[in-house]
């Protein structure tokens, strides 16, 4: 059995490994000069390769088509991935806040070296700088792959060329074009895990300011779409950071003009507790100005924003503040409003929302329902999740299942 894996990212490498371990002769074709170029930059270069959440808690992190992934995650779970990396690839791991799993060395290069060792031990033939130009099913069965280096014939194909995000890493959308030529429907390709541009201009003046342990909430009318505690930052166009990226996964493709955001700068205090603290601070130094009072609560750069939101001049002496003004200040701290204008372009997103319709893929094997012998893995598929290692696990799991299935067909799963 000759299996061709197109794309050398997380999904493609795992597909190649599992196909080889199931007995196939495997060629891994990658257009870049090295494997795992996008994997190398994930987690700010530390490689957040999975999340330690179990069962339903893990599935809760998947935003798009979680049910489709049941079989893949069962076939190759996050626990199995960790066992493979530590036990066979020789890469010690550690678990950090939120269940995020990283290499103990904090070096994504160690993960890549470990995966490359596994591929080598399984005799996977890696062909770098190999760009796929066409993919053609043959009448007698199998496929003809045309590349910049010539033509190759394979019995089965795993398509794992990634999405549209970070095109400099090779995720240029070429795989979607190949899937289209074979009759597959591609769901709209949108940015997910992307920074957000705001209607308000004031975040631009705070560019570079990071806020930790704040709660960001998104609502459409009275319906809560998102609410999480974490870290975010202001940018020259609006807001970004882990909280914002996870929020974007919930609202991409939605009409943003209907969505309102609220930023709770003191989630550890109720509004009543915050008011009591304001009263105590004022009693201790009644003659100081409001801006000094606010400096004791939040980063200095936020003071004018909070004062403006509360409708109180920064220079106001604290002893002059009445109950209504103090109430307005507490409301500003507990619910600073923002309006999303747009998500940043898909090229700046961490992942791509959309892709090959999961209705046209067998979830038990990752095989196309339209083209026998064609399998999909990773970001090619219309599945995605929040930040924290979930998306890489999706790539590893779908890749493992696709490769295993391609090597032996459905019987391999029996």
Q: Strands, helices and their partners?
A:
Layout: E1 2-6, H1 10-21, E2 25-29, H2 37-41, E3 50-51, H3 55-59, E4 62-64, H4 70-75, H5 78-87, E5 93-95, E6 100-103, H6 108-121, E7 125-127, E8 132-137, E9 143-147, E10 150-154, E11 156-159, H7 174-181, E12 186-192, E13 196-198, H8 202-205, E14 210-220, E15 223-234, E16 238-240, H9 242-251, E17 260-264, H10 271-284, H11 290-295, H12 303-310, H13 323-334, E18 336-338, E19 340-343, E20 351-356, E21 374-376, E22 384-385, H14 390-408
Parallel strand pairs: 1-2, 1-11, 2-7, 11-21
Antiparallel strand pairs: 3-6, 4-22, 5-6, 8-9, 9-10, 12-20, 13-16, 13-19, 14-15, 14-17, 15-16, 17-18
User: What fraction, in percent, of the residue positions are helical?
Assistant: 25-40%
Number of helical segments with 4 or more residues: 14
Distance between the termini: 18 Å
The helix/strand class is: alpha+beta
CATH class membership of the largest domain: Alpha Beta
Overall body shape: elongated
Q: Number of domains in the coordinates?
A: 3
Radius of gyration (Å): 25 Å
Name given to the CATH architecture of the largest domain: 3-Layer(bba) Sandwich
Mean pLDDT: 93
Report the major sheet. 7 strands, antiparallel
**Total DSSP E strands:** 22
Strands of the biggest beta sheet: in what spatial order? 18-17-14-15-16-13-19
CATH topology of the largest domain: FAD/NAD(P)-binding domain
Low-confidence stretches: none
Percent range for β-strand residues? 25-35%
User: For the record, what is the CATH homologous superfamily label of the largest domain?
Assistant: FAD/NAD(P)-binding domain
């Amino acid at each position: 059995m000759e299996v061709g894996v197109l794309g050398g990212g997380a999904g493609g490498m795992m597909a190649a490994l599992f196909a080889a371990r199931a007995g196939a002769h495997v060629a891994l074709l990658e257009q870049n000069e090295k494997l795992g170029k996008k994997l190398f930059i994930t987690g700010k270069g530390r490689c957040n390769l999975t999340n330690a959440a179990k069962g339903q808690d893990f599935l809760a992190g998947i935003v798009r088509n979680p049910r489709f992934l049941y079989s893949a995650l069962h076939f190759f779970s996050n626990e199995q991935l960790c066992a493979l990396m530590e036990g066979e690839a020789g890469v010690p791991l550690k678990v950090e806040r939120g269940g995020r799993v990283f290499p103990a060395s904090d070096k994504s290069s160690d993960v890549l070296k470990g995966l490359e060792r596994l591929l080598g031990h399984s005799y996977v033939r890696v062909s770098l700088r190999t760009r796929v130009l066409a993919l053609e099913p043959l009448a007698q069965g199998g496929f003809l792959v045309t590349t910049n280096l010539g033509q190759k014939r394979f019995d089965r194909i795993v398509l794992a060329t990634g999405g549209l995000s970070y095109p400099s890493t090779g995720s240029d959308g070429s795989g979607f074009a190949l899937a289209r030529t074979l009759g597959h429907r591609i769901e709209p390709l949108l940015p997910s895990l992307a920074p957000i541009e705001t209607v308000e201009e004031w975040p631009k003046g705070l560019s570079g300011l990071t806020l930790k342990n704040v709660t960001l909430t998104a609502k459409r009318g009275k319906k809560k779409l998102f609410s999480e505690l974490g870290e975010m930052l202001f940018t020259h166009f609006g807001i970004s950071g882990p909280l914002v990226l996870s929020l974007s996964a919930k609202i991409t493709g939605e009409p943003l003009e209907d969505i309102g955001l609220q930023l709770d700068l003191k989630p550890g205090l109720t509004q009543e507790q915050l008011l009591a603290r304001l009263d105590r601070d004022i009693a201790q130094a009644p003659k100081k100005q409001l801006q000094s009072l606010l400096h004791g609560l939040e980063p200095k750069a936020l003071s004018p924003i909070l004062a403006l939101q509360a409708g109180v001049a920064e220079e106001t002496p604290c002893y002059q503040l009445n109950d209504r003004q103090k109430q307005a200040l507490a409301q500003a701290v507990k619910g600073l409003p923002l309006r999303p204008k747009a998500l940043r372009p898909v090229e700046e997103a961490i992942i791509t929302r959309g892709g090959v319709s999961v209705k046209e893929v067998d979830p038990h094997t990752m095989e196309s329902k339209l083209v026998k012998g064609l399998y999909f893995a990773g970001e090619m598929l219309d599945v995605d999740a929040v930040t924290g290692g979930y998306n890489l696990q999706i790539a590893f799991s779908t890749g493992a299942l696709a490769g295993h299935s391609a090597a032996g067909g459905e019987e391999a799963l029996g």
